[in-house]
Design a protein that fits this description.
Blueprint lengths: L51 H13 L3 E5 L5 H11 L6 E4 L6 H5 E3 L1 H10 L23 E3 L1 H5 L8 E5 L8 H11 L1 E3 L1 H4 L5 E5 L7 E5 L2 E3 L5 E6 L7 H5 L2 E5 L4 H12 L1 H6 L1 H13 L6 H13 L9 H4 L9
Parallel strand pairs: 1-10, 1-11, 2-5, 5-10
Antiparallel strand pairs: 3-4, 6-9, 7-8
Length: 331
């Protein structure tokens, strides 16, 4: 490795990089060749660090077939919990619905491209896509080509073994969204009006996920067979209505303690890295707890990776960067 770890120096001299630095394990993506030589702890079966009390809360939600509302500071593993449940119980890929201020219940259930269907109907000689009669010899556009079930809509498909649905950062959504979810959570069913008003009883519609998988929807209504495993995350930025809370099992994830941090570091970077990171773990805990810095666990992982991998040859110069408080907004 070069004595100077800097790839970018800010001058005008071109310096082609022939040996791109290896990423931290949590920044490895699926395209191209997978890196080799990673610790065994980083395999697909790596565990999720969680206390027995919190395990009991998760299992309570699973047995009651109720949504699990997970609150906690950023970096406490709220979103990772959904993936850990799906991985351990072999429930397939997580259906992910990231919520923002513009999210609506309809968006989570399905999307209908009415404009695209109208355009294609016009191109085939029919100006009204809802007309009962097509011109002779003209094939009507299949409405299933213009409908795709959203993450929530896909999760509610009738199955014996459920899918896992992650509704991420619900507190960032519109104030009415939690109440809009109540009926769907209680009844496990929803209607697609665009299909319900058709005379044909069955339509083939696409679902959320890779490829072009389709499912049959009869009479425009979807009703789940087994309630999905719903994990809802919140950063605690606002309160939810009591009626919504009553229908959820609530889990408040605390900041990990020293023992849990050692396990997390070992899981992601290997037991050798965890043994060499003891001083950094102690420093992280001191900054987080004694100096009340707003720090996330992944900041510790970043620091350990830079120190142990040797990427930062002078780690002390970037120490303040990786341990900067999340609440520090000064430019």
């Amino acid at each position: 490795m070069n004595r100077d770890w800097r790839l970018f120096c800010g001058d005008a001299e071109p310096r082609p990089v022939t040996d791109w630095p290896a990423p931290p394990p949590w920044r490895v993506f699926t395209g191209g060749e997978a890196p080799t030589g990673l610790p065994e702890e980083q395999g697909p079966g790596r565990r999720y660090v969680i206390s027995e009390t919190d395990q009991d809360i998760v299992n309570t939600a699973l047995h009651l077939h109720r949504p699990l509302l997970v609150t906690g500071r950023p970096g406490t593993g709220k979103s990772s919990l959904a993936r850990a449940v799906a991985r351990q119980l072999c429930l397939g890929d997580v259906l992910h619905w990231p919520v923002n201020s513009r999210s609506t219940l309809a968006e989570g259930l399905y999307r209908y491209d009415a404009v695209g269907r109208l355009r294609d109907a016009s191109l085939t000689g029919r100006s009204d896509p809802h007309a009962d009669v097509m011109p002779s010899g003209v094939t009507e556009p299949d409405i299933g080509d213009y409908l795709r079930l959203g993450p929530l809509g896909t999760a509610l498909l009738p199955r014996r073994i459920p899918r896992v649905l992650l509704i991420d950062e619900l507190d960032k959504g519109d104030v009415d969204l939690p109440n809009d979810l109540l009926t769907v959570f209680e009844e496990g069913t929803y209607e697609i009006p665009e299909l319900a008003r058709l005379k044909s009883a069955t339509a083939q519609v696409r679902v959320t996920g890779p490829g072009d998988e389709r499912v049959s929807v009869i009479d425009g209504r979807v009703t789940c067979g087994t309630f999905p495993v719903v994990v809802i995350t919140s950063n605690g930025e606002r309160d939810f209505p009591p009626a919504f809370l009553r229908r959820c099992v609530r889990l408040d994830l605390k900041q990990p303690n020293a023992e849990q941090l050692r396990s997390i570091v070992g899981m992601h970077l290997g037991t050798d890295a965890a043994a060499r990171a003891e001083a950094l773990i102690e420093e992280f805990l001191r900054l987080r707890d004694s100096e009340a810095r707003d720090l996330a666990t992944d900041q510790l992982l970043n620091a350990v990776h830079l120190r142990v991998s040797g990427a930062a040859t002078d780690f002390d110069k970037v120490r303040e960067t990786v341990f900067r408080s999340l609440g520090d907004t000064d430019d």
